[in-house]
Task: structure prediction
Amino acid sequence: MRKPILLEHNHWISIEEIEVLDHGLNWSNWVDTYPCKGRWEIELCKSDDSIFEIKIFMPASEWNQKNHHGFWRVYYGRIEFTNTKLFIWQNEDVPVSIHYYEIESEIELTIFKRKIRFRKKTHE
Result:
């Protein structure tokens, strides 16, 4: 298997703004933050021993704000690949399995039943 293009760049951003997805998480009940429409982001870092770790962020807003104000980390952990899947090991028991697809220089992940396309993020 060739090297996935996800590993070629440390920062990715969704091509389009994503609506609030049905995430089934209850974190907004115990923090003053809630999900909102906006661009999702991915950060990738290489730890020792050539092990890659990923963080996937959804846009979030403070409780009294109407617009995108920050991010909430949805997934994070060590990653592994198959041809069509990205496995995120947040713990050592069961990984999160996300559909992974490459389209030229972009990637597509299926998160919360929604296909989200990402491009390399350039620093503004």
